[in-house]
Specification:
mainly alpha, Arc Repressor Mutant, subunit A, 7 helices
């Protein structure tokens, strides 16, 4: 990097628009929250009724199934299932009790613990996935016209990319 580049001031942040509660775009946000809450409740109810498994437990089993060696550090699992570390500890405790998960010392750092998916947990996940996928199809996919589904996917990917970009920028700044 040249000396000239290093001396340039950082670009000014773009001015933020102010969103008011009466802005009609807020209605879209509210619909998103309502749809998310109701969909999560339906999927959770289906899994509990048919498999005695919560949606959070299902998600944890899925994250472990997709991880290398079917194992994750507890803090990684907490990040992936969007729970606090104490919340994921309680969730894993329940899954350990029913034989779906084992807790092992971390293979790279003996101070840490990893959650490891058992064969019984994998079977449980596979059985429950039929119910979960049926729920996604019935309550989400079928409710959206095929042409709109592509637009919803694109919009949600843009939201996630923006949020992840902002989080990356915050980490770079040391915030």
């Amino acid at each position: 990097m040249s000396a000239m580049t290093a001396q340039l001031p950082a670009p000014a942040p773009s001015p933020r628009r102010t969103l008011s509660a009466r802005d009609p775009r807020v209605a879209t946000w509210r619909q998103f929250l309502l749809a998310h809450a109701r969909l999560v409740r339906l999927l959770d109810d289906d899994l509990r009724a048919e498999h005695d498994l919560s949606l959070a437990e299902y998600d944890a089993l899925l994250q472990l199934a997709e991880a290398p060696g079917r194992r994750l550090r507890m803090h990684q699992l907490a990040d992936r299932v969007l729970l606090s570390r104490s919340g994921v500890t309680r969730l894993i405790d329940r899954l350990v009790l029913d034989g779906s998960v084992e807790r092992d010392p971390c293979v790279t750092d003996a101070r840490g613990a990893e959650a490891v998916l058992t064969e019984a947990g994998l079977r449980r996940l596979r059985t429950a996935s039929l119910t979960h996928l049926r729920g996604i199809e019935d309550h989400f996919v079928e409710a959206i016209a095929p042409d709109d589904l592509e637009a919803v996917d694109r919009a949600l990917r843009e939201v996630v990319a923006t949020i992840e970009g902002e989080a990356l920028e915050e980490r770079r700044r040391g915030a």
